[in-house]
Amino acid sequence: MAQQRRVQLSTQRPTSTVCVLGTELSLDVCGSAPKDAVAFHVQGTPGVKLYVVHETQSIKLPSSVSRWPLAAGAEVLLAMDALSKDVGDEKVRISYFGEAGGVPVGRAMLYLTCVDVSLDADTSRSGAVSRTLLDKATWTWGPDGHGAILLVNCDRDDPKAEMPDNRDTAIRSYADLKDMSQMVLRTRGPRTIFAGHRLLLHVDFGDADKVGVFYGGNSVALEEYKHVLGGSKLVYAVKPSRHQEESIFYVEGLAFPDVGFSGLVAFHVTLLESPEKGLLETPIFTDTVVFRVAPWIMTPNTAAPLEVFVCSVDDNEDFVAAVGAMAEKAKCPLTVCPLLENRQDRWIQDEVEFGYVQAPHKTFPVVFDSPRDRGLKDFPVKSILGPDFGYVARQALEDASSLDSFGNLEVSPPVTVRGKEYPLGRILIGSSFPRFGGRRMAKAVKDFLVAQQVQAPVELFSDWLQVGHVDEFLSFVPAPDRKGFRLLLASPSACYQLLKEKQEEGFGEAAMFQGLEEVPKPTINEILANEGLRKFNNYVQICILTGIPVLQVNMLVLGRHLGIPKPFGPLVGGQCCLEERVRALLEPLGLTCTFIDDYFSYHVLSGEVHCGTNVRRKPFAFKWWHMVP
């Protein structure tokens, strides 16, 4: 339905006003009528479409009725579908008649100027701004949805800058502009009309700290781009150029969706008119466009690897070399975080998680920094944040626990659950049962993950573990059939079954941890005879859900190449039976298993293969705005 504005008329002097293309004006024919008038006649110039509303019916003029009774509710509507060439070049005249008819007892004259004012963005999600018939003031999900998209400008395009680009109010490079979404204000019609009417671009108070808007006028010089909206700036008075009909604004997101912020931001342009000198201006037209801030999206193990990260510390040269060799086989670049930057903190998987943001015009990776903040706490900002590589963090209001480390943050491949599709997978976080004293992920982190909407988190019971991370008992690997992946779950019962088989084959004296010094080396017979150990593992098995039972899941996945912690026995016939069983389960899926020694002094099996590495992966092919949360 077109915007409609009521216009007061006068029989004492002519009235002038603006009609914006696509809107309607309602003329107050009764309010301006002389006392003795009982009927009226309306006529306009060819550029004006007129309708009389009489007894709830809308009748287009001209009609067979020449005079209309001034009954209560009588109304004249007008619209214009062509721009004016000059100010006041179209007219409407209302003639009023008394009981005797004949000569009019009064006339009201209205001079009209038709202009076009439109605030547009990429509401069709094509990657370019264009005018459409879509409702710009709403935002809808799905493949047939519409609505503009905004990226949080959280990278650092200028290497000399100290903070991400969303924390300043300056344009430092043309690359910075490319991270932003365009918003175009179009003004057409006689240019002198805009000299007498103000145009205000404005944002709602509650949205102002979530966005920044820059405008450079007609210049292409970076120094001409000024911060005009956002933060404490709620309104910007636009002065349309005499020579150009379009004013291009660049919009950046400053904050991701979170508690109290759905991600939706509305911008408005309002045309103001001052009917009399000295009187306050009144709004005569407003156009609105709504953006949604793009969510942070996490990538699963099954996505193609783009870059492997590993930390070099005092005692892991062989481990780094083994990871490097595996990365080379997977044809994936390796980035080694040196000791000076990691400060003896090897657990890079616990410190950060890699994801990305995406809009129709741009996609770039974003590293999510955990509240853990140990030796690696400065690494994400100092060494990862950069041009087209963003950064986001959340801090725990309470003391951070082990469950706040991002080894406790995984995401599944695309899945369908009870008929509901999750084309970007579901986030998995470890937690405790709701009981006193149980550990849970920090509320600030969990709230952030939920607010992104596109990877609905699921909490899994992991508090039974000493460290409590979900990556200690589950992993996803690619597969050539079915859903395209397998969920691997650690399985104490599968291990007991294997050891029982080897005992029955006569290998009960085969010992664990062969080749390791100063480590107890229990035999298969001793392990199976240990009732306390068996009871504990029965409890552990209950805590783990059903899936493909394997013996090792804390692994590095680089496409079809799997890096798995070396189990060190038991040796049966010169071969590690645990390794052989894992190969038998995974290699039929087309996967290559490489067993890596990640043992060091204070862990019997450290888990460094997964927790000591991290992988940036290829974004989903699926566009997040095509889904329906």
Automatic annotation (TrEMBL):
Keywords: Cytoplasm. Residues 284-551, 552-626 form the Protein-arginine deiminase C-terminal domain. The keyword Cytoplasm applies. Its main location: cytoplasm. InterPro entries: Cupredoxin (IPR008972), PAD (IPR004303), PAD_C (IPR013530), PAD_central_sf (IPR036556), PAD_N (IPR013732), PAD_N_sf (IPR038685), Prot_Arg_deaminase_cen_dom (IPR013733). Residues 1-113 form the Protein-arginine deiminase (PAD) N-terminal domain. One of its GO terms (molecular function) is calcium ion binding. It holds the Pfam family PAD_M. It comes from the Eukaryota. Residues 115-273 form the Protein-arginine deiminase (PAD) central domain. GO terms for cellular component: cytoplasm; nucleus. Belongs to the protein arginine deiminase family. This is PADI1 deiminase. It comes from Oceanodroma tethys. The lineage of its organism: Eukaryota, Metazoa, Chordata, Craniata, Vertebrata.
